[in-house]
Amino acid sequence: MKKVFILSVLAVFSAFAVSCKDNDDYSQIESVFATKTDSVKIPMDTMALGVTQEILVYSTFKKTCEGIYSYDYNYTNDSVRTIANFAYKTNDVCGDGTYVDGSRINFKPTKTGNYIFKFWTGKDAAGANTFLEKRVVVE
């Protein structure tokens, strides 16, 4: 009976010791940052009110250590939308080369008119934000 008790106590302490062990064998996100838009695909530049279309916003990432995290979609006013992709960077060593990935944004207008989409493409030499602009007409 004494051996069973000792083995039980050892098993419990072993379980606690293993459960407290840090597991650094997986990738961890170290940072999230805005990444420039390389290209945009808007299937319809003229669309009907009430229709939803998917806008694809592409950016380039380093292999094995970066990827698409999310996007930011801001209403500047009723007809202007400002969009930026956000990337993550992990603690993995970056591989050679790059790949392209992106965000899918569903746009369903609630009124007719001209909509201007401004996609963030980085900063110029003076540090000012630059944008790729696309127009969608809603009839």
Written description of the protein model:
With 139 residues, the protein is mainly beta. It has one domain: Immunoglobulin-like (Sandwich). Helices cover 13% and strands 53% of the residues. It is built from one helix and nine strands, in the order H-E-E-E-E-E-E-E-E-E. The strands form two sheets. Strands 1, 3, 5, 6, 8 and 9 form a six-stranded mixed beta sheet that branches. A hairpin with a 5-residue loop joins strand 8 (113-123) and strand 9. The longest helix has 18 residues, at 2-19. The relative contact order is 0.23. The model has no long low-confidence stretch (mean pLDDT 88). This is Lipoprotein. Residues 1-17 form the signal peptide. Keywords: Signal.
Average pLDDT confidence is 88
Second-tier CATH architecture = Sandwich
As a percent range, the share of strand residues is over 45%
Global geometry = elongated
- The count of DSSP E runs of length 2 or more, i.e. the number of strands, is 9
Radius of gyration: 24 Å
Q: How many distinct folded domains?
A: 1
CATH domain class: Mainly Beta
SSE order, one letter for each helix or strand: HEEEEEEEEE
By secondary-structure content and strand pairing, the structural class works out as mainly beta
Structure characteristics:
single chain; 139 residues; mainly beta; Immunoglobulin-like; 1 helix
In short:
The protein has 139 residues and is mainly β. The chain has one helix and nine strands; from the N terminus they run αβββββββββ.
